[in-house]
Write a structure and sequence with these properties.
Elements (H helix, E strand, L loop, with lengths): L1 H10 L9 E5 L5 E5 L5 H17 L4 E5 L4 E3 L2 E6 L5 H8 L15 E8 L3 E8 L2 H14 L7 H4 L17 E3 L7 E4 L4 H5 L9 H13 L4 E4 L7 H4 L1 H6 L7 H13 L3 E5 L17 H18 L7 E4 L18 H19 L4 E6 L1 H9 L7 E6 L18 E6 L13 H15 L5 E4 L7 H12 L6 H12 L2 H17 L6 H16 L15 H5 L2 H22 L7 H37 L2 H9 L1 H17 L24 H17 L1
Parallel strand pairs: 1-4, 2-3, 2-5, 5-7, 9-10, 9-16, 10-11, 11-12, 12-13, 13-14, 14-15, 15-16
Antiparallel strand pairs: 6-7, 6-8
Amino acid sequence: MKMSLSYCVLLIPLCIACVMVSCSEGNSDDLYIVRGSDITEVENNTLIDLEKDLKKVLEGEIKYITDTESLPSNSNVLIVGTADSNRKIKSLVDIKKLELSSAYPGPRGGIWSKIDLENNVQAIVLGGSDTQGLQYAIYDYSKEILGVDALEYWTGKLPQPKTSKALFNFEPKTIAPPQIPILGYFENDVDELANYRGKLLEYDWESYTEMINSLVRLRYNAIQLFDMLGRPEFFIRPEYKKLSPDYAIRETYIDSLIDYAQSKGMMVQIDVSMGYKIKPLDQDKADCWKNHKQDWIDTWKYYFEETPFKKADIISLRPRNQVWDWEYKSSCGEDKIAVFNEVYQVLGDLIDQYNPKAKKVMVCYADGMEMFNENLHPPKDWLVAWSDDGFSGFKHLPKSNKGYGFGTYMHAGFWLNHTVHDPYPKKIDTIMKNMVNDFQADKYCLVNGQQFRPFLLNIEAFSEMSKDVNGFDGEKFYTAWTQRYFTPSVAEIAVKSMKRLHEAQLDRGGYVEHLWEIRETVSYLSNAPIRRPGKTPVPYDYAAVEEDYEHVEKRLGLAGEALELAVEGEKSVQKEDTFYHDYIVLPIHLYYDLLDFEHTLHQMAQLKKTFEKTNDSGALEKALEMLPIANEKLEILHKRSLDGDRNTKWKNWYNPEIRRPNNGFPSKQMLDDIKTNLVLLKKSK
């Protein structure tokens, strides 16, 4: 033993700086992770994720050592960190065995490397130019080498066992900084995610943190909190007051979620509009800046002084009404462009005072786009985000970016289709190339993913696109994404099926749009206006129903083709694989069921119109005979909504009783009202 120690002492001058090896023997099945002495909280949390990933696939023990300790001989080692946080990485950089710095690969860039050290030590280096670059190096390694799915919680896809030798089965790699430096996720319209576990309008810790975990692995580095802050609908709209009469928010919970997101390396974005339950501005003060300027300023100050909003890394504001999400229409004769030129200056000064490191973003919807194309000009330190039409297209384009840092606000899902996704990676491909190449809109991208789970495909497509906009290929992404989960033959069918589903939502169609069309048809068939809490009733109108016939038939045909393909693919999927059914088959079933029900009501509406034109009671009789068919289809619609998911984790997700109440949901009462009216019409003949 003494000879061995003496021998090691003699070798010290020959060792690589801090990368010294001891003469202790490592177990070939064990893995040693070298953790930096100056590790940050985010790096440490990412390292914990890596350890969990490794334990999923390795049999050997995983041990930590610090960057000041010696490495066991004959061992497999993972050296993880940045040149600032890990001294072993710095020593390798200093002696030119590794190329890594804050400038190379650059902010949010990273590397994979393999290095043979003394005493038969094989080392893998996962490094980053900065903390986020390190995260990408680690999470990409978990995905590509360990086989850990970034969306594992949502898909159920588990990695296969690996040998320690397999950990080295890669070529050294440089992970370039993503082209779009800020990729944010907009937490919006998330009722299903909030409600399915039973506690209404409060997001359970598991679902929300698992969403953040997946987003970070997908390289989203920001999240805009919105619904959870207490959006005004939740405590003002009658539908929500009925759903949750005692609705309240917990600021401590919001505070904890902000801390969690930041501990995972995400910036937190807050839109400082003023309708939130946390401190709502009176509506009558939201549409007249000149008379209520101090109320606006006092509300913002309260946000920055008294609420978790003060922790925001990104602060945004839309040039719109500051309580409700609609166009600003001044009640006191103001020019709205002049109003918001002043608003952005005043708010910007407040942000500089309270949170000088925060980034500022002006998000322009259609009305804001028109204003920007005219004379809206916030201070130049405000980044401008240009909004799509809800379905990743653009109805309005900028005349110029006016020299602002320019980005986009995009939709992976939209309120008109928040129940069933509209898969469109090819559209993301072409539209984003145009926006980036024509308007340099590559400084920021905010992605609205609705309630996340149904929109995984589009959410990840935006992630891949943000790495290299012109290099992103929507068709190749489709293939790679589906083959990650299914065999090549099943993946091919899944792609064809989802493409048909996309076609079936032609002209920006969507599930929620059809809910409204059904209400219009029910209104006509029952001779009753559509009653909306807090709004003017909509009179029944056959013309409104008639204009829906053609596109419903077309969408129903395409949805039917999509469903046939999806079901065909399912024949080759193992029964225990619930993801294929729940993500590929079920959404199409739900959409088809709704269209089929609506189509039946349309047939009844045509018969009623025939009666009105000809006074032929036989037409009414035929309409009444169709009621049992409509009722059967309604029962199918409800049953599939309640029992459709095969993975019991998602039980209750599509429950009509707790879903987002946009445009209501078909009910037995609707059919009873139709029957009552048709019988009365027949008797009155």
